Amino acid sequence: SYAMKSLQIEQNDKIYNTIADLYFYMKEYEKSLYFYLKIDDQTSSIKYNMSFPYLAKKIFIRGFELYENRLASNGICQQTQLITRVTIPNIPYWDGLLPCLHLLVIYEQGIGDNILYYRFLLMCAQLYPHMKITYFCKSNVSHLFKNTMNNINIIDDSKCFDLSGYQYKAYIMSLP
Q1: Between the CA of residue 42 and those of 49, 59, 100, 122, what are the distances in Å?
Q2: What's this model's pTM, rounded to 2 decimal places?
Q3: What stretches of the chain adopt beta strand conformation (E)?
Q4: How far is Cα 20 from Cα 175, in angstroms, rounded to an integer?
């Protein structure tokens, strides 16, 4: 391939990244990881991209650790042209292990992602029945999320709400 010929001419991070991406798309995850690990400048976006071969190989702990690198940047979503996630300052992130009485779960990315990841919010509510969970979601999908569990409260971005009283926050795509 031309990418491998480029690598013979010059070895640099951009070429390694291109080859790693190509192998990932071809579902050759070992080769993809090999080239991702060759990249000297391990930025958060490289680590985020590296999460996908690990997840595809079902190496979930490492994959989800690397997946959290998506939080290092907060760009514009290509599909919606909106910021990827709303920033909520002054509330620490929940690691899923520390005791928590009141958790704020925040939407991120597109509508489909929020619908798909809602199941993890339900699982969290089952695992921690004494924890009060507030799901802050987009107003155009809030009607889809019924308060089927006593410890989940749904609020949407059409209303202002008080941020005091939340012990921790988590973005919905961090729940797995």
Answers
A1: 11, 20, 33, 34
A2: 0.83
A3: 102-106, 132-137, 152-156, 168-171
A4: 27
